[in-house]
């Protein structure tokens, strides 16, 4: 038999599993509620994430649109600035006299034809490509947005050559930085030199004869080229050796010296590179490549007395026409007549040189900082002078009429 205590304790032992089950059920309920809350939170966060993604897509679209609008406005602003700038080719295109004054070209039509021939490409890409080819800088450091339209870059360079303006002056006129002016001038002068150098300056004997002025035909019809030398003053170099080689006894200053050959009709047919001012005419002829040009039988070259090159030309079967040298203290009547005749005909090359030096970049001594570009500048200005009116016209300053 059980004691009373044992009988009373029995229900207590039976209640323990019930309490445990109740506790577990409560815990499960709490966990289920927590899981439900977490799932709801996850669902909410997923919804928010989707909303954020949608917002990001929308914002990216807005940013892209704003970027396009900014680029468009920047282009409009640049165009408006250029149009409102007081110094662009558009301002002078309707006045031939202004175009001649500022560019050395007879008209805006000539300017446009030159631009078409040069073919600088869209936004000057061909000029930029040429600039890159000349540069040793890494490509990534040279991708610049151009500040001026292509035709105004060319206009700027022609204005610099024609008027000899300083870069700071050009920067103010064109509303750009001086460093931009320097870059534009350097790249365009090299590009002009490369493109204009492809033009065929030499003419066949048939063309020379067909365009020969009457005064040549009468006595000097065999003339193929009239040759002369000219000098351009440069700054005095700091090195004594360069001072000596660039010093010209003829000009009593430091100079560069170049040869110009013109056809009887006055057009430039030969442009040498520039040599130091101490070089003789004979030395310049030898070094310039003039003797390598192809001549026809019985061709003649007309030159001044300083060109002692008759023996050099004879090797090519070419005659040299020079004014007679003074012998016996006086000229004979025939020599006086010959001197006057040759001087009258040589005026063509002298006028051509005057036209080249009408590009006022040559007015001041050439800075030594321009030495890497001086040959290009010299050649470009010489060839550009061919675009002007004929030397046979008395009113040489007037624009040439279109054929």
Automatic annotation (TrEMBL):
Residue ranges of coiled coil: none
Region (Disordered): 1-24
Segments forming domain Transposase Helix-turn-helix: 146-196
GO molecular function, one term: metal ion binding
InterPro entries, per database record: HARBI1_dom, Transposase_HTH_dom
Cofactor(s) this protein requires: a divalent metal cation
Record flagged with keyword Metal-binding: yes
A Pfam family hit: HTH_Tnp_4
Segments forming domain DDE Tnp4: 227-386
UniProt keyword list: Metal-binding
Record-given protein name: Tick transposon
Source species: Rhipicephalus sanguineus (Brown dog tick)
């Amino acid at each position: 038999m059980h004691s009373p205590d044992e009988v009373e304790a029995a229900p207590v032992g039976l209640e323990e599993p019930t309490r445990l089950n109740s506790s577990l059920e409560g815990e499960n309920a709490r966990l289920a509620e927590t899981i439900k809350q977490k799932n709801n939170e996850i669902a909410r966060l997923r919804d928010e994430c989707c909303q954020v993604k949608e917002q990001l897509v929308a914002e990216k679209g807005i940013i892209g649109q704003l970027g396009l609008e900014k680029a468009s406005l920047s282009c409009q602003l640049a165009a408006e600035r250029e149009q409102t700038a007081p110094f662009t080719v558009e301002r002078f295109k309707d006045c031939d006299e202004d175009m001649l004054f500022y560019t050395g070209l007879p008209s805006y039509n000539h300017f446009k034809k030159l631009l078409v021939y040069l073919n600088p490409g869209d936004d000057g890409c061909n000029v930029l490509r040429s600039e890159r080819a000349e540069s040793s800088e890494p490509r990534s450091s040279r991708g610049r947005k151009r500040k001026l339209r292509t035709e105004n870059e060319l206009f700027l360079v022609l204005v610099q050559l024609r008027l000899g303006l300083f870069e700071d002056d050009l920067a103010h006129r064109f509303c750009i930085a001086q460093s931009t002016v320097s870059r534009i001038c350097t790249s365009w002068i090299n590009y002009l030199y490369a493109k204009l150098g492809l033009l065929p300056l030499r003419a066949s004997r048939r063309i020379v004869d067909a365009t020969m002025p009457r005064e040549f035909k009468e006595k000097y019809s065999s003339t193929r080229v009239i040759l002369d030398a000219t000098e351009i003053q440069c700054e005095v170099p700091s090195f004594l050796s360069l001072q000596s080689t660039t010093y010209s006894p003829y000009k009593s200053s430091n100079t560069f010296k170049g040869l110009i050959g013109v056809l009887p009709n006055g057009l430039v047919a030969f442009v040498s590179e520039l040599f130091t001012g101490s070089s003789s005419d004979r030395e310049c002829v030898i070094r310039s490549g003039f003797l390598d040009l192809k001549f026809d039988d019985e061709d003649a070259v007309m030159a001044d007395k300083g060109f002692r090159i008759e023996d050099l030309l004879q090797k090519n079967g070419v005659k040299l026409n020079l004014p007679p040298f003074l012998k016996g203290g006086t000229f004979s009547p025939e020599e006086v007549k010959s001197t006057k005749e040759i001087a009258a005909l040589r005026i063509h090359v002298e006028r051509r040189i005057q036209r080249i030096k009408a590009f006022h970049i040559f007015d001041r001594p050439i800075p030594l900082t321009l030495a890497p570009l001086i040959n290009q500048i010299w050649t470009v200005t010489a060839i550009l002078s061919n675009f002007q009116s004929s030397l046979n016209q008395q009113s040489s300053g007037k624009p040439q009429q279109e054929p």
